[in-house]
Design goal:
This protein is mainly α and 347 residues long. The chain has a domain at 59-291. The protein contains 14 helices and no strands. The chain is globular and about 65 Å long. The protein starts with a helix and ends in a 17-residue tail after the last helix.
Length: 347
């Protein structure tokens, strides 16, 4: 119980300190922090239109955050969500183009399976390099991001390019009938439901299954896990695969629910923002949901900040960077707040 309280206290404290630093940054631009924060609220949650924009952005953040959160439970710091999302979206687009004549349900299902599976294998390679060759997973996953983006750019201006897309080189369309539809009359697509379901499913796996318990043991002490006979290699590789597959689904949703074709828009920064969401949630799949809404809201308010306060487009990235730095700094205090530590039997 005290451990949970400590986690929440550190997270909330980091967010409060982030707010103070953001306020100082806003003051340096000549704006009022109160007015800018109010605009942030209006742009993120002030109306149904704002909520729709926030929810659309929160869906991929939920899934890319899992790409960092699930491997972190076995002790790996993987930051390859951006690359996995690109791989998932690109392979989904190729699948959709190749299956144009099939029924839409089959095409969408195939895109989800192929996109998620290929992205899962992409991040599984990171886990394999770490486990079998002791290659640092943070560096390898970061480098794989650049490789995925380079492959995307090569293909969309090469063999997969639709000649009709001159200003923004893109692949051929997957077809309107193969798009994931919106929920009711809103602009929120069913990809949000996919994100929620995957987060809930991964929380159940992490908290209510023997695999989740084994992953926690492996992440806590890999030598102890080996001593008690746990299949460490399978646990590490499966955790990486599941994380990559989740980020790949984010790419599939971006293609099938928004873009309709693969282009440079796949490299939109959701994978990097997902790292922040994962650390804010302390790698808890259930806590990822509210934090994805928070970050999605900040991103959704970017346009309003530009119009109302003449702030540059990079302002949202600065806000996210400040929050990320404070969350990382708060890790140093974990386990050091005396009144939140359990009292020993000897005291």
């Amino acid at each position: 119980m005290l451990k949970t309280v400590e986690i929440w206290c550190l997270s909330l404290g980091a967010l409060l300190l982030s707010a103070l630093l953001i306020a100082a940054f806003i003051l340096s631009t000549g704006n009022s922090p109160f007015e800018v924060f109010y605009s942030l609220y209006r742009g993120a949650f002030g109306s149904w239109f704002s909520w729709q924009n926030t929810l659309v952005r929160a869906a991929p953040l939920m899934l890319t955050a899992l790409c960092t959160a699930l491997p972190a439970r076995v002790g790996l710091i993987v930051i390859g969500g951006e690359g996995a999302m690109v791989v998932g979206g690109l392979t989904a687009a190729i699948t959709g183009i190749a299956m144009q004549d099939a029924p839409s349900f089959i095409v969408i299902s195939a895109m989800l399976i192929v996109g998620g599976g290929c992205a899962g294998l992409w991040i599984l390679a990171v886990g394999a390099l770490r486990h079998y060759r002791n290659v640092n997973e943070t560096i390898s996953s970061l480098l794989l991001n650049y490789i995925a983006i380079a492959v995307l750019n090569f293909l969309v201006v090469g063999v997969l390019k639709d000649p009709a897309t001159l200003n923004n080189p893109s692949t051929y369309s997957i077809g309107d009938k193969n798009m994931i539809t919106s929920i009711g009359d809103s602009s929120v697509h069913w990809g949000l439901i996919y994100g929620l379901v995957v987060c809930l499913a991964m929380w159940f796996v992490a908290r209510r299954t023997t695999f989740g318990f084994a992953a926690d043991v492996t992440g806590g002490n890999i030598r102890a896990a080996r001593l008690v006979g746990l299949p460490v290699a399978k646990i590490v590789l499966l955790s990486c695969f599941l994380g990559g597959a989740a980020a790949g689904l984010a790419g599939v949703i971006e293609i099938a629910a928004i873009q309709g074709r693969a282009n440079s828009s796949l490299n939109a920064g959701y994978g990097y923002a997902g790292i922040l969401v994962a650390f804010l949630a302390r790698h808890n799949p259930l806590a990822i949901i509210p934090y994805a809404l928070l970050l999605g809201g900040i991103q959704a308010s970017g346009g309003l900040l530009q119009r109302a306060h003449d702030l540059p487009d990079a302002t949202v990235a600065v806000f996210q960077g400040i929050i990320f730095m404070m969350i990382l700094s708060s890790e140093m205090l974990y386990g050091r707040i005396k009144f939140l530590q359990p009292k020993s039997m000897m005291s």
